[in-house]
Design brief:
Helix content is 31%, strand content 23%. By secondary structure, it is of the alpha/beta class. It has a single domain (3-276), classed as Rossmann fold (3-Layer(aba) Sandwich), CATH 3.40.50.1580. Helix 1 crosses helix 3 and helix 4 (162-175) crosses helix 8 (258-271). The longest helix is centred in the middle third of the chain and has 14 residues, at 162-175.
Length: 277
């Protein structure tokens, strides 16, 4: 089935189950998986109940849309995402983002775990994503353009919305979080990088590397959504500390700082009511 047909079929199948028109779409990365449980949940839709929906194979990733209010803001939250390394077509990887836009979301807020490339960073830091490098994964816009979503040659000069970045910076100050800023580079994974690949990333201008997110931001920008994002620096990228990387360490660091990460995300979304009008 063509990506366009698949997207609209899935949307038709769930639109009657959506409790409200969300304003913000939030994707939870590692360490934020439990954020939704702290909110007053209005409704949930399990990915398993959506025919044809890409479901994550990574242990520890839940799979459901959660609908909740954060302050006055109506939010749809993805508790669990799929990654390109799981073997899905890149169109399937971004299908959930497209679906949340069809539900009505104007803002996409992405979060993830990432390896620190910038040597000033430390594990446990939070990094506001100011730009990305997505050219190491296939573009989700290859093939026939879906004209109903956006134009053939979308501008990418300001993917990460300056007003949203401002709100996140203000809330980091308010909540006492020392916020780093930088460029996120997406590789396919699933293997971690070699030291030479991390050095290359630094030369190219990256501050953090990971295996998600940039493709989602491309899809959202194509659809004219306002985008913002935060990376949790769970480890220094390969070669910096001369020790092997493992998924357990990534998970543990993400869990350790989840509380301040959650606070920052929740208070920032509450303040987005200012620009949603
Ligand atoms: N590299 C790629 N992805 C990651 C890393 C890393 O070092 N840490 C967390 N996700």
């Amino acid at each position: 089935m063509k990506p366009e047909e698949k997207l609209y079929n899935i949307f038709d199948g769930i639109k009657d189950k959506i409790p409200f028109e969300p304003q913000v779409a939030l994707i939870l990365g590692s360490g934020l998986g439990n954020l939704a449980d702290k909110l007053d949940i209005v409704d949930v839709i399990s990915y398993n109940d959506i025919e044809g929906f890409p479901v994550s194979t990574v242990a520890g990733h839940k799979g459901r849309f959660v609908f909740a209010h954060i302050g006055d803001v109506r939010v749809v939250i993805m508790q669990g995402r799929v990654h390109f390394y799981e073997g899905y077509d890149i169109n399937d990887v971004v299908l959930p983002v497209r679906l949340m836009k069809l539900m009505g979301a104007k803002i996409l807020f992405v979060t993830n775990a990432a390896g620190g490339v910038n040597e000033d960073f430390m594990p446990g830091d939070l990094m506001l994503i100011t730009d990305h490098i997505a050219k190491f994964v296939p573009s989700c816009l290859l093939g026939k353009n879906i004209d109903t979503l956006g134009e053939r040659f979308p501008d990418m000069s300001t993917v990460y919305n300056e007003n949203l970045c401002g709100i996140i910076r203000e809330n980091a100050d308010k909540t006492g979080v020392k916020l780093r800023e930088g460029v996120y580079l997406q590789f396919t994974g699933p293997e971690y990088e070699t030291p030479a690949e991390v050095k290359m990333s630094r030369i190219l201008g990256a501050d953090a590397v990971g295996m998600s997110t940039a493709c989602e931001a491309v899809a959202a920008n194509h659809m004219n959504m306002m985008v913002c994002g935060i990376s949790c620096i769970t480890n220094m990228a390969s070669g910096i500390l001369k020790k092997p990387l493992n998924h357990k360490e990534v998970q543990e660091t993400a869990d350790m700082i989840s509380e301040k990460f959650e606070k920052l995300v929740i208070s920032s979304i509450r303040d987005m009511s200012k620009i949603l009008g």
